[in-house]
Structures are given as structure tokens and as C-alpha cells.
Protein 1
Amino acid sequence: MHHAYIDKFAYQDSPIHCLDARIKFLVTVVFTAVVISLPRTSVSILFCYAVGPFVVLVMGGIPLRFVLKHILYVSPFVLVLALTSPWYDRTAATIVFGPWIWHTTVGWLRCWSILCKFVVTMLALIALISTTRFANLLAGLQRLGVPRLLVIQMGFLYRYIFLLIDSAHHILRARAARSAGGVAFGRGAKFAAAMVGSLFVRSIDTAEHINSAMQARGFDGNWRTINRLQVCVVDYVFVVIAVSFILGLYFFVKPLLG
Amino acid sequence: MVKAIEVENFSYKYPDGTIALNGITLDVEYGERLALIGPNGAGKSTLLLAITGFVRGTGRVVIDGMEITNGNLKKVRSRIGCCLENPEDQLFMPTLFDDVAFGPLNMGLDSQQVKERVNLALAEVGLAGMAERAPHHLSAGQKRAAAIATVLSMSPKIITLDEPDGSLDPRNRDNLVKLLAGLSQTLVIATCNMDFAAAVSDKAAVIDGGRVIAAGPAEQIMSDSKLMTSHGLEVPRKFINGYSATGFSG
């Protein structure tokens, strides 16, 4: 079965793809932290910040359609949060942008701020995931000191989540093939419970097989890997450019835009 | 004289009391290619698990001169590699390199040695240059070959393969036959596919009801139509008189 893997563009070849996973991860974290920490009324500066990940995505050859699709996938959660803001805070506010003046409320400003911050940080996250192989990202996280157990769990999750989804699809297809004319709600709920149970048992079965495969290859509880990541001059250049961009906007452009 | 595998009167019951293996006695010489053939539920996979020390029952299992005990499992498993039925279970790391390197790293080899072993193993199974690929980006045939590479990188003397031809199309199965033919290790292959068994083995053992019914040279065992049909098996095309096989070049 075909799956839209989140790192499907990570195997391309571009200057961005060649950068060290640790560097890209750290820059993304700093970028996200700075964007989130911006005052809720600083909406215009967010458009400037969006330029950074946008350039990375273009240089990495990531189709914008793919990016927008993934932003839309997770947008419902943020939309609920953002669209309720105007109801909570109706304090009047005025926006002055050159000769133009708008009268609105702080709630609406917060709503736009949440949406813009969401889009900008998602752009950065997608830029990271789409230009970094998941294996390298995991290796990078491990080298950065993220607990090994967490990294291993993420690796297993990424490796096996699609197999689990496949199993679920097969069960659903088997049900559809035998449920002519639809299924009553009660029976549907019963089926859902049975499916979850079946998937749970299969997961345990798979886990036991993986454990056997690991033990057969001498696993003794110590997770050993080879570090194949290397920071080069290009990575340092990228850090300088990225940090200059992030801090330059924060300290020099933000005060101008207000 | 030491044999690659010696199983003496080995019996095993599942936790629910069902007898899986009942007094199995079997020898495999170094360099032999043994096909374990038998109907579904005969006990072939359980026997492979017993040989690799995952199932412990009564009787003896001796691998490369070492009787399997709780104390020497790690040493035994450095000499016998096992390929599970489903390669998805065997390939659990994010990249092919990490998967093939997993065993050598656990053996305590240094980085350089591990890299050399990984490159050699991948080249041997025809996956050279694919070390950075994620397992989920491989085809079924490539996954099977990769699973064998994960074992080859540990340079074992013996390799067990459980239904290695499962869900492979004829071309990939033919490639697998060629790959197995090129290996120098002692092989124990459990399969229900008689044509495949005939192509990859020089010795065969019929297993049914947890017992070894017959063991001997592959042609002698697998061309005995009475023996084969009485245990739900069939004579491979290779051993049918006058049949000109076109498949399985192994």
C-alpha cells in the first residue's frame, strides 16, 4: 500500500538537504521559539519571518502544494483556538500601517497572530522534515542529548506505524466486502472494538518478532549505533545566515514595524 | 566429529499443552543445505526457533559443537543467523545501513570493521549503494535480500531461513535462489514450496506432526511421490520424470 511518508522529499539532493541534521534541527527550534515569543499584536513581522522557511523550501525543491496540504491537515486544531479568540477579548485596537488605519479588537489581532504564527512555524517544521532524512534526524537528536529511549521509540514508531495503518485498512476492507447494505451503529461499534483488539494483538505479535530479530543479532539491551553525521563549513555558514536573519528581524525590523 | 547442527530427541510443548515438536533428531553437516519441508503447522518454524535458541524444550540442540544453554546464547547466535518469515520484523532500523550494522555492532566490532561488513553484505545480496535507503522504500524482493544481509554481516557459519520465498513473485524468487546458491554457509530452509526447496537444497527433511518423518538427499526424499503426497506435499517439477523445468536456475 502506498503511504504519503512525511519525509518523502527528504531523499532529494539540494544544498539544504546536505546540511547537518543537528544544525537544521537547532535552527528550527530557535526560529520557532522566537516566532512564538513575538507579542500577539506583532502580526506584520510574521510575514517577514515567513521568508526564511519559504526560501529554504524553494532551495530544497519542496513543492508548495505539498507544504500547503500538510499545513491544512493540522489546521483544524489551531483554527478552533484562533477563531474563539475574538469572543474572549473585545477590547478595541487600532492598526496603523503607513497611511492606512484599521479599527478592530485585540481578540481579532490575537486570532490573526495565532494563525500567522502557526503557518510560519509549520513552514519551518515542514522545511526541516522535508529536507532531512528521518534517520538522520533521529541520529541528530541522539547526538544532541535527547534520551536514547525516546529516539528509539520514535524510530520504531516511524518504521511500524504504516504497517499498522495497512493492517487497519485490510480489516476495514474485509468488513466492507462482507457488509452489503451498511452496518447498524451498534454492530459498527462492536466491530470497531474488535478491530482495535485485533490490531493490539498484532502489534504485540510484531513486537515479539522484532525482539527475536534483535536478540538473534546479539542485542543485549545496549543500543549501539555509528555516528555518521559530520558538521562542515557549509553548516557553519548556514548557522550564521539563519541566526542573522532571526535576530536581525527581531532586534532591527520588529521595532520599525511595531 | 563436530557437526554444524545436532538435534537429539528434542521435544517442545506450547504453553497450552499442544505438542509442537516430538522427539526430533536431526543432523546437518557443515556446508549442507537442508530443506525442512512439511505441511502448514507441521512444526518447521518451531524447529527453526529451537535451533536458534528461542524455544527451549527437552532434549539437546548443539550448534557448531556448542550445546545451547542460557549462558551461551549470545555466543551461539554469533554462529547461527536467523531470517524470520516476515522481513518487516527483521528490518526494524530507520536505514538499511543501520539494520545491517546492528549485528556487527553488538558483536563489539569497531566502526571501520562494521562499515566494511555492511558494504560486503549489501554487495553480496545485490543491494550495494542502497545503504541509506529506508526499509519501507524497498520492494518485497529487496526486503528479503536485505533481511539476509542483516545476517550475513555477522559472518555466521549457519543461516536459518523461515519461508524465505513467501510472497515473492517468480522473478524475485529466482533471484533469491541465485542468492542462496552463492552463499557458502550451512543453510536450513523451512518452506512449503517444493519447487523452491528442490532448487535450493541438497538435503531434505519431511516434518509432520512435530516429528521428522524422513531425512536424506533432497532428490531421494522429494522424488518419493508416496512419501510426499501422504504428508500433503507434492513432488517438485524438477524431479518429475520427463519434465523440463524452465524456472529456478538454482
Protein 2
Amino acid sequence: MAKTLTQKAAPGPALDAGLAHKLLRDMILIRRFEEKAAEAYALGKIGGFLHLSIGEEAVAAGATSVLRHEDYAISTYREHGHCLVKGSDPRRVMAELFGRIDGLSKGKGGSMHLFDKEHNFLGGHAIVGAHLPLAAGVGFAIKYRGGDQVIVCYFGDGAVPEGEFHEALNLSALWKLPVIWICENNRYAMGTSLERALAQTEIWKFGETYAIPAEPVDGMDVLAVRDAVGRAVERARRDKTPSLLEARTYRFRGHSMRDPAGAVYRTKDEVEREKLRDPIALFRDRALKAGVLTEDDAKKIEKDVSDLVDEAVAFADASAEPPASELFTDIFKERG
Amino acid sequence: MAVMTYREALNLALREEMRRDPDVFVIGEEVGLYEGAYKVTQGLLKEFGPKRIVDTPIAESGFTGVGIGAAMVGLRPVVEMMTFNFALLALDQIVNSAAKLNYMSGGQYNVPIVIRGPGGPAHQLAAQHSQSMEVYFYHVPGLKVVRPSTPMDAKGLLKSAIRDDNPVIFIESETLYNVKGEVSEDPDFVIPLGEAAVRREGTDVTVIAYMGMMYRAMEAAEELAKDGISVEIVDPRTLQPLDTETIIGSVRKTHRAVVVEAGAGFAGMGSEIAAEITEEAFDDLDAPVARVTGAQAPMPYARNLERLKTPTKEKIADAIRQVCYANGSR
């Protein structure tokens, strides 16, 4: 099935300076933002769980690069990157992590529950597998209203053994809904490796089970992700066909900031080996070699992003805690 | 006004709201071609077509989530649970998604969804198909919970539920679908959520009861009237938000209260109402609040055991006499 899918690359493999700049900038934004978040966590400014996607940036950046503003995205609790590249203001995302009133959800959602209606980012869901049916529902609503939007649904390999993965894929295929299922396969559901969780470890093959187009894609290659998602988006817009993409990626950090230092579920060697395929370094080298970016361009992106993230932290720091009255607002939506 | 069954009243409410608002659709198992396991959706497929009357496979979590996702982006789904027992398969979707999305998103994404279907004790359906389900929902901040006892309420409250911008759990009853009563045919007629109804006025004791238990309490009240005990019956209709004002007001008048519920009593609706009365009207009480509840056991199949499990007219009458200190002294 993968063979037929690679024939028509919708956005095209052509890499120009504008695209290279955007992809590199988006990936570096996620990386630096999360590094800063980790620092703030260590300082006690961010509480609860904090799940970083460092190492997995190419999936969010590549997928989002083929979406329109009016398209939807929905994700897991490891969603800072998906939210940022969908267009959210990094200052408001950081303020949300800090639990402050200027956060996207006024500080009531936190790291695991980022929502941004202005950018059609539908959350931040922290029960594994539970947001997949919601994505099918958004696809249902798009079709109901006759629009040509799509929804991208990110989930981890840990969601695949859940019943809701299968219910949602089946419904999306049965009803032909414009959903692009993107499994970010980082090979570990918390500390449980793929082999210990799934009888079928080639996750994209579940697409065959539900008779929808599916393919594996190198999740460390932002252009490969962009091409695969681009094809899936084309199919979804044109004939409301859902697709399943298995983006093979790797998280360089722990499951969350609370991962034990001496975690034994994977080896240090393995982590170091995977870091050699850092998606940001790979793409920077490629863009430089292709001559679409210069060293100076890359440095400028680093500097601009670094300033932006510093500003986000300063903004979050300066933002007030939500007032006590916020405890009881938004439980129900009142008319008016 | 017209006389119709509870089932027909629900059907009319769905039709009227679907005619009024093109964003309203019905989704669930057997709602279309089969016309509803209990025929509540009879004829809807013919009038509205398969786009708006959506048959699903047996996948409660999946199709409930579909409803919630569609509601996040502005549609107004009515999700039918063939019976509310099956809602447990979708409990995470209801509790962790529907109830909390508006709060977690700081008010950005509300979920205007109705999840409806029959629940509560039925006739010899045994442990998995005959139980009171409301307790699983009214505890959760962010959910509204409705239990409509009459055809009029079924129509007026379902219309309000569909128009509400929040998730509403709307639990009907197999045993009431054939009950007949007067129903308004005015498409603008609605009954607001959160308002109790006084079913019978009285002066000696307040009985709080809903659904089948309300009808049994009415029978008990008729009987006790012959003995000179004047019973007031309050039907909460909506359990969340609960109209404590009407309940407390009635207790302040009668000075005695009996709470009836079909489900097991431990941490049930009766416990909550008894606590509210004790907190708000303790000094008005002439007797401790009494509860008549289902036994703390799964629902048995055998007819005699089923009768022992569920509150009967006799048990309700006994409790009323007890709080009136009228045992054997009438």
C-alpha cells in the first residue's frame, strides 16, 4: 500500500528558502521552548507532570506545515510542540504551564491541557486513546457541514493497544471522515517498549485492517513527514479519506520530568545512538548543503527563537495567578 | 395539549428540535433503520435522513467521543444509549472529556451534547440491565443530570437539554415509556433544567421521589390520605442542578421528610438530599429524615427477589408513617 501512496507528493519535495526557514524555525522553537520549560520545572515554576517532545519535533513541524489555519489539530499530553507550531503565542503557552491567568486556559489546564480556539487547536488530552474518538467527531462535523477542512490527530504508540484507537479508526473509515491519524511512534509507552505492548508492531499495518491508506514514515525527517502528511491531507480534502501514518521517532528525554534518573527500560547507548539522528541537526545540514539556508540564516533563527522563548518566560513570570473566582467559572457555559 | 405516551413525547421533542436547528443530530445504536431499540426515534430516519439520524456499530466509547468532538466544533448531538447501562463503556468520554473540556480550556470549548436513554430498574432484566445509573454522573462537576417522570417533563426537559450549551445526561426509564399524559404541542414549550415539581400538595410530610418511585409514592399518598396523613410529593426532575429551594421550602412547611430512590442507598441521591435537608432545615424538622432505597445488592432476576430489592408502595408508606409517628396509632 505504501508504494501507491508515494507516487503523488502533494506539496512537492522542492525545498526553498521560505520553507526551509519555517521548518527549521518551528523545530527549534519547540526544542528551545521545552528546554526552557524543563529549567522552569526544576525551579518549581511549573508543577505536575511535564512531558517533553524533544527529539520528536520533526513530526509536529512537518505535519503542520501542510495545514491551513482553519484545519484542526488535536493531541495528547505531549502537545506543547503541536500547539506552538499550529500558531499559538509562546507567551500564552508558557503562562499556561506556569498556571497563570494569561495562559491559554487561564491557568486551569496546565501542560497536559493546552487548548487554543483561535488556532483550532483542540487540546491537550491526557487519558491515553480518549481523544481519538473526539478527532473522528470533528471529522464528522466537517463532513456534516460540507467543508474541506481536515483534522490531524496525534497520538503515541501507547494508544494503539487501547480500544478507542480501533473504534475511532473503524468509524473514520466506515463513515469516510477527513481525519489524518498520526501515530508518533517513539517506541516506548512510558517504560513499556513496543514489543512488550503490541502483537503487531508495524503500527501502520492497522490501516490495512481498517481499509484506509497507511504508511510508515521517518519521523526524524521533517521533509518526509511533510510529504506523507501532505498526501494524506490531499486525500482527506478531496474525497474525505482518512489515513494512518506511523511516524517513527524517538524521545530524547524521559517520559516526563519525573522519569527516574536510572530508568532501565532503555539503554544509554540506545539514547545516544538515536541522538545522532537529531531531526534539527539533520535538517539544518540538509538545508545548508542544498544552499537554501546559510550559516548566518541558521544562527539568526537560533537567536530569534531564543529571544522569543526568553520573552515567553518573562511574560509567564509577570502574569498573575488566576483569581480565586476562577475556581467556579467555566464549569458550565452560561448563555449570553 | 394532547394526550400521548412518554415515548411519543420524547420523539416529538427530538423532531421539533431537529426541525428548529439543523445542527442537532441523533447518533447511536439502532436509532435509524431499526427505529430505536425502544422506538423513541421511530420515524426520524424517514423525516431527517441518514446524515442526521446516524446508526453506529456497537462502540459506545467511540460514538460518544464522536458526539463530543462534533459538539466541540459547534454541532448539537443527541447520543442515544440503547440502555444507560452501556454508558459505562463511555464513562471516560463522559467524565473526562464532555464534563471537563470547557473548564480545562478556560471556557474555549464547551460541549453542547445530550446523552439519553433508559435506565433504572426494569422488569426482570437482571443485574446488568436493571440499575440506577444517575449516581455515576451527578457527582461529576460539569454534567447536568435529568430524570423526567412524566410525558410532559420528558418533552419539556429534553428540549431544554438539547438547547443547553453543556453536557446533559438524560436518563429515561423502560417502565415509563408507555405512560400516558397531557403534553404541550407548542414547539416553544420547554421546562427549564433545575426546577422541581410539586406533584401533590400536602401538609404533614414531604416525600422526595422521581421516576417510577414518584408514582409509587403517589399511590402510597393516596392510601395514607384515607388515614388522615397529608403527603406532599416533590419530584426534583433535575438532579444536577438540584432545586434544593423547592425541597427545603416544602420541608419547612411539613416539618417531615422521606426520600425515596430506586438505587442502592449508600452514597445515593437520598443521602445527598437528606444531608441538604439536615444542613438547611434541621430546626424545622419534627423527625429525622427517612430514606427508602433499593437494597445494597445487585438486581436479582427472580421476581420475588426483584421485589425485595426495590422500594415498594408498602415500604414507602411505612416510612411515611414512621416519620409521622403514626405507626399503629391511627
Protein 3
Amino acid sequence: MTLDSVAWDALRLSLWVAVWATLIAVPLALWVAWILARKEFWGKSLLNAAVHLPLVLPPVVTGYVLLVLFSPTAPAGAALATIGLTLAFKWTGAVLAAIVMGFPLMVRAMRLAIEAVDPKIEDAAATLGASRASVFARITLPLVAPGILAGAVMGFAKAMGEFGATITFVANIPGQTQTLPIAIWTALQIPGGEGKAAAMALLSCAVALGAIFLSEWLARRVATRISGAP
Amino acid sequence: MKLRLKHRFTGFTLDLALEAGSGITALFGRSGAGKSTIINAVAGLLRPDEGQLEVAGETLMDTARGIHMPPHKRRFGTVFQDARLFPHLSVGQNLDFGTRYAPDGTRVPRGDVIELLGLSALLERAPNTLSGGEKQRVALGRALLSAPRMLLMDEPLASLDTTRKNEILPYLEQLRDGPLRLPILYVSHAVEEITRLADILVVLEGGQIAVQGPLRDVMSDPAAVPLIGVREAGAVIEATVQSHDPDGLSTLKLAVGQLVLPGVQAAVGARVRLRIKAQDVMIARTKPENISALNVLPATVTAIQIGSGPGAALTLDIGGAHILARITRRAVTELDLRVGSSCFAVLKSTAIAPSSIGR
């Protein structure tokens, strides 16, 4: 039961992908959660369904759809290629797969948090002279912070664990798209690879536990700030 | 401030024109009369179907011309029934939020507001540890510190019990009479608050203004009795505290005559305003003797309003001041009361609660 360079590469890649996916997805998810929580418009249920689709679809299907949309020959893939961004079979594609798969979880957590903020409190802030942007930055955002944090942790965890959509979309290239779960699966495919798989599984558990402790600590800090205690 | 407003609800339409200047303009009406809608439309939180709002020559809203100034530019600091303090900020930080957006040169000294509202002991506290009355004081302080052009108050005391209400009313009286002299639009369905605070009274009924004018005029108008509510209606008069007597009663001096009431919370020489509920006033044609009521005032009937039921409202002149009396139509007939009749108004001392006496 040893950790070779393949395992460490896979861990590094997974963390890299998960951090990027979380950083990109949080503002987007917050925006979508805001729209779903606060706005009424035609096609709202359609947007809601689209956001939640990856949660209910088999991940392989999500990965396949991504492949169809973002392969270099597809319109979307070609458009991104002109700005020098290729996704298929690259770590960037693994980031996209992680974003798409984690998005519903993030939006859900943030939407609940936004719905818990009474718009009347924001109205009160506006009558005191605060512009919309100031109200958002000073009132809404701090009150929603625990939800954003919860969503980010879920998205990060999902990105660390994402397998089906990733392997379908960007395959299994060591050092490029072979994330930790994919490396574990690969090790299990090789006779005698169980020990390696077990070591990586333990590594995976350690990262997950670390993430939970970190998020608990952050949540406590946010909670003390929100309750207004000095 | 000049407001014209038309807004349709299911069931009724709010349609009114209103002017509010210095002092406290009170908007009185039953729950669901559209009072909060008026506040929200003035504050800019609601777009009415039709309306114009003008302040000192500046148009803040005109639906016909598509003008809708956003709330933060209108600067109507608002105190809501539910204090709406920011839960993640301490009391001090809530107050600072008001100051932060006050335009330069208009800042209200923070210390003055803290002193006026007695907030110094609360500054470090979190809003969820405050009592209802404390919350409203903080909300009021926050609104004052935002240096509003006018203060809007939407039923600020409605969610408080009587004790808390009486704890806050003196602060509001002080605000009205103090150096800030901020114009206030005050919405309430509680007659007691309005009679203690208002300078101008506007009564809403069925989405329209039924009557408006100086508080004393409206409250002593017998025609307004059904609008105010027959059990709550009563004229507001002014008096000067003459003495506090050893038996717990206070003697107040009227323009002519005097009133004896239970312990008034004001210094000798202070001016107080009090509401004498119409239903607490009895009428006698001859001066009653051996009667427990301590206040028997010679009066002249100046108006009689026969109600739709068995009641009648009388306006009485007592040495230049006007009070209302609500008696039965039968009594009007049996006592042969007419405009110009002289009589005696009889008032039990205990009928006037200390809380209905303000400054």
C-alpha cells in the first residue's frame, strides 16, 4: 500500500480542478440562485430544470452532452478554440464537467439562503440611502454568506469526487485528466492494483475530512459575524 | 411634500391627494385602508398605478412622465412596524449604517441621537437580544442619522404592548419638539398615538381622505366621530399643570376653569395635551351636587350631530376650548339640548388615563 507519483499527480490534479471549478462556479451559481429566488420571469421553471438536470441525468449522459457540445468540431468547442481554450481531453474540460455536475448543489444551497433573507430588510437599507449595489454588498451578501459557503463546500466535494461525466468528456489521461477517482478506478482495472487503489481511497477520505473540518471552521466564523457578536 | 396617488387593490382603490409640511402629519385609518401603501409609494418601494410626488419643487415620482426616483436617492428615512434592523450588525453598526449614506454637510451628530433615544447602553448589543421597544428606538435612531428630508413612520408602535408604547411616545414627542424639527409622516390606526403626536391629522376611509386638518379641529369635529370610532373619538385640548396634590391627583389649568386628573407625569407649569373621550363626558342642565365626578365645567353647546344609531355627538365650548360629548339622542330630546344651550360637562377624573396625556 504505497502512494506513487501517479497517485500524487492525480491528487494534485483533482485539487487543481476542484479549486478552479469552485472559484468559477460560485459567482455564477450565486447569480442564478439570486434570479431563481427573487425574480419572476417567463421560462423560470425551464431555467430551474436546466440547472437541476445534471443532478438527475446519468453522469455519463451529461459527459456525452458536453462532448457533443464542446468537441473541437462542434460549434461551441470551435468558438472557444478561437480564443485559445480547448476543453475536450484537457484538464479544463474536467473543470467544466465538475462545474456542471456541482452546479445544482451549489444553486440549491445558495437559493435557500437568499430566500431566507427578508427583502424588507433590504428595503429598509434603501430608504436609508444605500444604493442597490451597497445593499447587496453590505446587507444581502453577509447574510447569505453561510449559504454561499455551504454551496461552495458541496461544489468542491462534488468536483473532488466527480467521475462519470469527467471520464466520458475528457477521458483518462494521466497528468492531464486523470483525477483521483479516475486513478482509483484505473488502479482497480489492473491485476494487483488493489493496494494502490486502497492507498488512494484513504487519501481521498483524508481530503474529504479536511474539507469538512475547514468548512465547519469557516461556518463558525461566519456565524459569529452574522449574529453580530463582537 | 405633495403627493397624489391612485392605486388599485382588489376591492378598493386608493385615490388621494396629500400635503405634508413641518411637524407631524398623521395618517389615520383602519388596518387595510392602504396606509402602508402610501408610505411605500412615498419611500419609493412601490410603484403606484398613478401618482406624483413633489418635494420642495423637485419631482421624485410622476407616473405620467415615467419618473421614478429610486428609494436611496429619495432619502425618506423610514421606520417600519417591524424594526427591520440588520441582524448581522450590532446596534452601533446599525446606527452607523444610517450615517454612512447621509449626504455631506447634513450629518446629524451621532451623540445627540444616542442621547435623545437613550441608546448608549445598547450600542454593543445584537438586534436579536433587544426588546421590541429597544428595537424601535434603534430603528428610529438609524433613520434619523441618515439625515432624511422627511421621516416616514409606518405603525412604529403597533407591535408593542402598552408599556413599551408609553416608553417610546415621550421620545417621539421630544423629537417633534426638539431641535431636529424633522417633518414626519406618521401612519397609525391607534387614536391614542395620534392624539399625542400629530399636528395635522388626515383620516382615510375607503381609500380616500375623509377629513384632514389641524389635529384639534378634526378631533373636535362631531362629524369625524364615526371615522375615528365612537369609543375612541374625543377632543384634544391643551392645559397647564397647576399643582400636584398630596392625594395623588393633579390640577390642570384650562383657559377657563380647571381639571382634576390622576397623577400627571409633567412638571408644574408644563403644557400638556390631553384627549377627553366623547363617551366619558356626561351632560347636566343644572349644576350637579353631591356627585363623585370631580370635574364639572360650565359649557355651551355649539354643535349637535345626530348619528345614524341611537347616539348623538355634541360639541361643547368650555371657555374657548372645544370638547366633544357623546350622549344618546333620547337624552338630547329629554334635556332639550340645542345649539346655544348652556349646560355642565361632567367628567370623571379616572376616565383619563395618564397615557393619553402628552406634551
Protein 4
Amino acid sequence: MLRLERRAQPSRAMRVLAPLIAALLMFLTGLVIFTLLGKAPLAAFGVFFVKPLSSMYGLGELLVKTAPLLLCALGLAIGFRANVWNIGAEGQLVAGALAGSGVALAWGQTESAGVLPAMLLAGALGGMAWAAVPALLRTRFRTSEILTSLMLVYVAQLLLSYLVHGPWRDPDGFNFPQSRMFNDWELLPLLGEGTRAHLGAVFALVAALLSWFFTEKTYAGYRLQVAGLAPAAAAYAGFGEQRNVWLALLIGGACAGLAGIGEVAGPIGQLQPSVSPGYGFAAIIVAFVGRLHAAGIVLASLLMSLLYLGGEQAQIDLALPAAITGLFQGLLLFYLLAADAFVTWRIRRVRRA
Amino acid sequence: MSIELLTAMLASTAAAATPLVYAALGELVTERAGVLNLGVEGMMLVGAIAGFAVGLTSGSLLLGYLAAAGAGMALALIFALLTLQLQTNQVATGLALTLFGVGLSAFIGKAYTGQPIAALPPLSLPLLGELPVVGPLLFRFDALVYGAFVLFFAVQWFLSRTRTGLLLRAVGESPAVAHAIGHPVQRLRYAAVLFGGACSGIAGAYLSTALTPMWVEGLSAGRGWIALALVVFATWKPLRVLAGAYLFGGVTVLQLYAQGLGLHIPSEFLSMLPYLATIVVLVLICRDGRSILLNQPAWLGKSFRPEA
């Protein structure tokens, strides 16, 4: 008979291995799913996980999708470490896209080197403003940030829908619900010929370095970590909970907002009714799979980005719905949580008495 | 106000409130056992597509609802295995369940998008339905609207009048004590989580076969999260869940009729109302911390594993 037993000490090996085991299990489940759907499993696996990476363009696309995932996940991870559950990154992303685009549209068509930086700044501020609402409600009224940040996702999406159908609609756009196309000087510069990878990927990498520095080397980062690991100790040490909540949500909001303006000033090039295929939600998975650690999150965001690309490829080559991406994302997180349990537990064979 | 308008408003209030009642009452029972399952939205979506698909292919909505309850329970079982057996973090696991449910339902639902289904018909109650005024007002809803009230009475009675119900509440307050006395803590928590899953599944199926009889990706549009908020708003009391759900149903209806009344508000702003209302009521109820502290199950969201 097998029994779960608490380990004397948490297993360090399992902490590192758990995400790898989870990814492996997800790949294996993928083979099973492909077989069940009547596709040749190995060929389908190749289409999903290998083919997207086999060209320069494909690698560029990997970076295009990694950028917003990485940015959002880094911001969320800082909150999760301190038990601040901001799950509304998707809304903050949309708010950032709106604020940044608003600057571009208000600026008009005159070329200026200052527009793009102003858009990026406005994007980050927009995300922060959207995240400030749950922060205020939690610190002032003890309202759960989980529910408020999530409700604001829908509000942000509806606001976006209103703007592109109404005041911000391109007058020369044949009545399509979208803003005017952004001009060259309003777009993030591309990283290389023949790809769509843009400066946003660099921002995301810099953010990863900053996040590592913040959590490992600064006092504020330390306070957040203590608040998450040992709330009682944090309270005793006088680390204000309120300041942590504000800090975590504002950083998360700024990152998500930057990701949002990076999407509209990057691959999309204008405001549309939808500016993200759920990056803000997928980033929750990225943060966990990356162990809430900057280096891990970089790797996890690459994997998650591949899941998006694989879904698109599978839709083209295998006529599978692209929604299969969401299925894999959910599976990955389940497997991770299960594998994680074995950091503190182990299975022992016990003989029946 | 004409009787026709009143009837129509009441009908749409009940239709909007009913799925919230099922999902929130299910989650209430789960939370009363001390387990916080944030996967309601995911379980609703999977229930919605299961109910729709089975209802459409079999031609029987009853089978559809059974399938929806089963699908919700299947997802809840994954949650229970992870949180109760492997002691994973309940918040993270619940989020995972929602994300998984969103993906799974979108994947399965692709083949069913845009297909029509015969909506759940209103009950034809003999005599009562024929009564003047009261008949159309109160006795021409579908079975699930009345079922929601039955569920409410059942949950209320179970939690306050039965031995098992009292035990379940004890488990939510202090699983260690309940375990020490010799009560089956794990079994009760499993049952509570599965019950929540079945209720969420039914709530989802109501969306796809009654409220808007069709399948669209993500059709629950945050109702699972609103149900979670309702449980907090109700301070874990069934009667307040019922009242809260109807209050929310009323808000949803407001957005339909505001335009009819000639108010020129863009539809997007009216659609924001339920979400904004959720935030407002959460703030109102949380502002007074005592009512939350006094009523929240003491062990809510925390792991417990009986060491054998």
C-alpha cells in the first residue's frame, strides 16, 4: 500500500524538478490527447511544439508572445510572493493599452520622437491606475483583491469595446470597430528583419533583471517575501501590510500596463475590440510554473508562448481548435501543483499489518 | 407600470438570478466545510458545454443537466484530490481549475458554436398558471427557477437542522477538533466540494440551455466570480445568497430596460453594471469587518490533513 508522508525537510531537488516534471507530464498528456483526437501523435506533437520554432519568423513570434507574458508574470509574481492575489492582470493590460493609445490619438498625426515614450509611460500608468482600485479597496475596506481585480477585467474590456465602437473609432475605417493605425513613429522598433519581434521583448528582459534585483537585493523586496512566508513575523517586525499591498499591486499593474501598450504599439498596431488572447490570465500560470523567481519565469514564459504558437499551428495544419492552448495551459498548472506537493510530501510503501 | 412590463422584468430577473443561486449555494456549502474553491467559473463553463452538448445530441435536457452536474463534479474532484489529498494551496488550485475549465470548454465547444438548441420550456402548471395576474407573474417559470428555491430550503435545512450539516460546519470552523472527536473530516470535505461542483455545473447548463440557449466561448462572463462574491456578500448565510442573487438579477435587468426607457447610455456602460455592483456590495459588506470575521468559517482556505 502506498501512503503519503511528510518529508523531514522540504526537498530541494523537487523544488527544481517539479516544473520540469509538470512540463513533461503535459507533453505526455498532449500525445494522449492527439491520439484520442485521431491524429498521429508524434506528427501532431511535432506540429504543435517543434514546427513553430523551426524558422526565423517563428522564433520572432515566440518573442512577440513571450514579451507580454513575461512582463505580466513578473509583476504578478511579486504580489504572489507576498500573498497579494492580483488576478486582474488582463484588465490592467487592457487599461495600459487604452491609456497609451489615448496619448497617441490625442497627440495627432504630427511626427515627434516624444510620442512613443509618452505612450509607454501612459501605458504603465494606466495599468497602475487600474490596479490601484483593488489596492485601495483592500487597504481601506479589507475587500478581497481577488474578486475586485477580476471584476475590473470585465470593466476594462467593456470600456475598450465602447471606445473602439464609439469615440476612438477611425473615421476613415469603413465603420470597423478599431482606432486609426498607428504611424511608424508611434510603433515599437522591430528587433530584426523578417520577424515581428519588437523592443517590447527587450523591455521584458530588463524587467526580469530588475525584478530579480528587487526581490533578492532590496529591503522592500525582502519585506514582501517575509509577508508572504511568515505573515505573523512580518507583522511583528512592523512591515506594514498596507504598504506591501500597494507596492505589489502597483508594480503588477505597471508591468501589465506596459505589456498592454506593447501589444497595441507592437504586433497589433492599433486599438481593436480585443488586444490580448488572455495573456494576463496565462501569466498567472507562468508565475507559478516559474517558481515566482525571475529566471524561472523567463523560461516559463517561453514555454507558455510556445503553447500559443503551437495552438495556432495546430489550427492551420491539423484543423484543431486553437482553444487547445487553454487546455494545455490548465493542465500544466494542475501538474505543477500536484508535483509541487511532493516538495513537502513523499510516497512511502507501507506493508499492511 | 403595466402588468406586462412587470411580468417581463420579473421573468428576466429570475432568469438572471437562478444560475447565481445554484452556483453560490453550492460554493456556500463548500466554504462552510472550510474549503475555498475559486474554480466556480471553470466548473460553470464546463457544465455549460456538457449540458449543451448532451442536451443537443440526446434531445433530452434532463440528460443534459445530469451531464452538467457530472462534469462539474468531475472538475471538483480534481480540485478535491489536489487540495484535500495533496494539500496544495486552495487559491492557486482554484485559479488553475478556472483556467482549465475555460480552456476545456472552449476546446470542446468549438464544434457546437452557433448551433441552436430548444430552450428549457416554462412549466405548465395546471390551474395556478391560469390565475389572473398572479399566474403569469409567479407560475410560468421554468423548472430550475423553482428548483433554486427548493435548493435554498434544502441547504438551509441541511446546515441548520441536520446532524451532518452541523458536523460540516464544525469541520469548517476547526477540522482538527472534529477529527480528534472522530468525525470523518476528509469525507465531509470531499462531499462538500463535489456538491459545489454539481451545483456549478447545473448553473452553467442553465446559462447555455435557458438564459441564452446557445454555446459561445466564455459565455458565463464572470458569473462564477460574481457567485463567489455573493457568498461573501451573504456572509455565508443561504437566505442572503438567495436575496443577493435576485438583487443581482435585478441589476442585470435594469440594463435591458434602461434603454427601453429612453436613457441614452452606451450599452457597454450598462453591461459594466453587474461587475461594478459586485465591487460596491463587496466594499459595503467588508467595510464592517466584524460581520465578515464573525461569520466566515474559521478554517476557510486553510489546509488540514488528518495525520493517521
